[in-house]
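Table S7 (text form). Paired inputs.
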Amino acid sequence: MTLTPPQLRLARAALGLPNSRKTSYRNRHYTPGDGDFHKAWLSMQQQGLAVAGAVEGLAVFRLTRAGAEMALADGERLC
């Protein structure tokens, strides 16, 4: 199981990476419930790499531990 390049960009953004500390500091991404970003997150959810919820009419996705670890680059770590 691997992340596609668009999924990897979304996952890293959800974790707040890259940053100078090379450490994640969040784990969330909001989408309006349609579009390419939403579809990418749904695919990650189907693979067990993310979980979904809703906040004020928006879909909110969080990476599972497995999904978060797949998004790390060399030298980075999870908070």
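Next pair, protein 2 of 2.
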Amino acid sequence: MRFDQLLRNSALLADLPDDLINRMAAEASMLQLGVGQPFQRAGQLPPGAALLVEGRLRRLQVRLGEPPTSLGLVGPGSW
């Protein structure tokens, strides 16, 4: 599926004009993560906005000196 179609199908972006969706799609890139590979590390800003297309991501809260706490899973369509 093309980036513009993925973005148009997102409820979050449903009301945006086509020209804005097209500009966002032109700058989009696909990132594939392996099992256990982090998207964002604690204390760092994420590399940008991300729309999960397939699979699941586990959200973890990491505090110094404590084990990670699971904040649950997110699936396709999640930002």
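The mean pLDDT is 90.
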